[in-house]
């Protein structure tokens, strides 16, 4: 029995800059949760390939982790406020968040945040904010 694989290529059209800010309390529609998670028109999106410190739980790094988490979130707001954003969706994770690669003018926002010292690659990067 032959298996036929059909490849579907989707054109990723850039979307305009988002009117986006850091999420507050209450209902979330379009906002930045933290450096690797956003709400986009009611859809919770977890960016793939990188991880940032947690602003609420400071799991391992205490105040250093919270400070870095806030910097990563603020930088993501800046990045998503630019023109030329593309979102490449890759299904859902176990928390029902959309997994996606988000790019600004063709550059993965994860690569930008890692290069700027605000994130680590996932799953292979070290949680440097814990040290």
Q: Mind explaining what this structure looks like?
A:
The chain is an alpha+beta fold and 131 residues long. The chain contains two helices and eight strands. Strands 1, 2, 3, 5, 6 and 7 form a six-stranded mixed sheet that branches. The protein has a two-stranded antiparallel ribbon with strand order 4-8. The chain is globular. The termini are far apart. The N terminus is likely disordered.
Uncertain segments of ≥5 residues (pLDDT<50)? Answer: 1-11
Instruction: Assign an overall shape.
Output: globular
Sheet having the most strands? 6 strands, mixed
As a percent range, the share of helical residues equals 10-25%
Please provide the count of β strands: 8
Quote the average pLDDT.
Answer: 86
Q: What is Rg?
A: 16 Å
Number of helices: 2
CA distance, first residue to last residue: 54 Å
Task: Briefly note the structural class of the backbone.
Answer: alpha+beta
Strand content: 25-35%
**From N to C, what is the helix and strand string?**
EEEEHEEEHE
């Amino acid at each position: 029995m032959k298996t036929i694989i059909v490849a579907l290529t989707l054109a990723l059209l850039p979307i305009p800059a988002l009117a986006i800010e850091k999420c507050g309390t209450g209902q979330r529609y379009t906002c930045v949760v933290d450096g690797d998670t956003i709400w986009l028109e009611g859809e919770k999106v977890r960016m793939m390939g990188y991880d940032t410190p947690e602003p609420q739980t400071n799991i391992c790094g205490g105040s250093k982790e919270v400070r870095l988490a806030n910097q990563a979130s603020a930088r993501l707001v800046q990045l998503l406020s630019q023109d030329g954003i593309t979102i490449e969706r890759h299904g859902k994770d176990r928390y029902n968040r959309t997994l996606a690669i988000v790019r600004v003018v063709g550059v993965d926002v994860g690569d930008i945040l890692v290069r700027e010292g605000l994130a680590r690659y996932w799953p292979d990067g070290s949680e440097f904010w814990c040290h």
